[in-house]
Amino acid sequence: MRRTSSFASGAIVVLGVGAIIALLWVGRAPLGGALWRVLAPVVALRAAVFQPSEAQLEEELASTTAALADRNALAQENSELKRLLGRQGERKTILAGVLQYPPQIPYDTLIIDAGSDEGVVVGDAVSAGGTTLIGTVSQVYGTTARVALFSSPGSSYDALLGHAGATVPLPVVGQGQGSLSAEVPAGTPVAVGDPIVAPGIAGGYLGSVARIEAPDNSTFETLYITAPASPSLLHFVQVVLP
Amino acid sequence: MKSPVFVVASLFFVALGWWLPLWPLSALGIVLLAAGGAFPAAFVAGVVLDLLWGAPPSAAWFAFPFVALAVLVALVRLAVQVFLLDKRLPERV
């Protein structure tokens, strides 16, 4: 009798835990969305408390405006050439504020304040400004979304290495902490500072080669790539709509 | 260890870690809860954090790292209790 009751209670516990796990697996996205909605006032309060001062933002803007001047001219020229050749590489974007960023939150991800209410969908590219891509939207909630940075450990993407006018396709792997790596066959023409860009007509700058490791007698070289922008310094990002 | 003050203080660590944000602080809160024997609270806190911060992008979508941390610490606590603390020396050699 005692054995039967202990068996029954054990079965109930196992079934209960199984039901909870099944509920969490199936309902992860909606439950996460509901939680972010419930916590929206707290998130707004946090944003108000930790908001950078106007003077600080103006200072940052002044320092970047000069650096962007020639880039804007080149981007305009690039866009004009594509238009003349009958290919529109322009994209629509949504501005989003960064609520949480690494290393304060785990997994090299960002939480941004734009979600399905603003038209963000899973898979949208995210840029730090202009054509500088930093990641893709991995989860969308009502008013927020999660962005997986290209540097997320274990993530892998196709990219192109540019060197002296030639391009070499290569798979780029995230290393965490804003860095990426890639392997190319030994003898591939590459130099420190070479750009890594996303494939496609719209393209996008992913980073540049920071270090090349070419061990003796190895058939491959390892390239270490630095992302163009440090996620912890970003206050705003642009979500690129499809 | 399972006093309400201890549980509330640990949950405060979890919440503060999310709000600041500083994820190791949240992880510490979960470890304290699970190690202190408040496993249901550790489990719920782990679920909430995993729902908010999601799974690692390269891991399977059903990965729940903070819940896994709570379960791991609870198992370690159980093992310590069973194999170390509860062991009695034989009365006669």
Descriptive account of the structure:
The complex is a heterodimer of chains A (242) and B (93). In chain A, 32% of the residues lie in helices and 33% in strands. Chain A is built from 4 helices and 12 strands, in the order H-H-H-H-E-E-E-E-E-E-E-E-E-E-E-E. Chain A has helices spanning 2-26, 28-38, 40-50, 54-84, and strands at residues 93-100, 109-112, 125-129, 132-140, 145-149, 156-163, 166-176, 179-185, 195-197, 205-213, 220-226, 236-240. With 93 residues, chain B is mainly α. Chain B has one domain. Chain B is flat. Chain A binds chain B through residues 24-25, 28, 31-32, 35-36, 39, 42, 46, 100, 104-109, 111, 138-139, 146, 148, 152-155, 174, and chain B through 19-23, 47-48, 51-59, 61-62, 64-65.
Short précis:
The complex is a heterodimer of chains A (242) and B (93). Chain A is an alpha+beta fold and 242 residues long.
Q: Which series of helices and strands of chain B comes N to C?
A: HHHH
CA-based shape of chain A: globular
What structural class do the secondary elements of chain A suggest?
alpha+beta
Please summarize the sheet with the most strands of chain A. Answer: 6 strands, antiparallel, barrel
Residues in helices of chain B, as a percent range: 55-70%
CATH class of the largest domain in chain A: Mainly Beta
CATH architecture call of the largest domain in chain A: Beta Barrel
Relative strand content of chain B = under 5%
Poorly predicted segments of chain A: none
Oligomerization: heterodimer
Largest interface: A-B, 27 and 20 residues
Taken together, the total number of domains of chain B comes to 1
Q: What's the number of helices of chain A? A: 4
* Average pLDDT for all residues of chain B: 85
Any idea what the shape of chain B is?
flat
| Spatial gap, N to C terminus of chain B | 35 Å
Give the neighbour order of strands across the main sheet of chain A. 1-2-5-4-3-12
CATH homology superfamily of the largest domain in chain A: Rod shape-determining protein MreC, domain 1
CATH topological fold name of the largest domain in chain A: Thrombin, subunit H
Order of helices and strands of chain A: HHHHEEEEEEEEEEEE
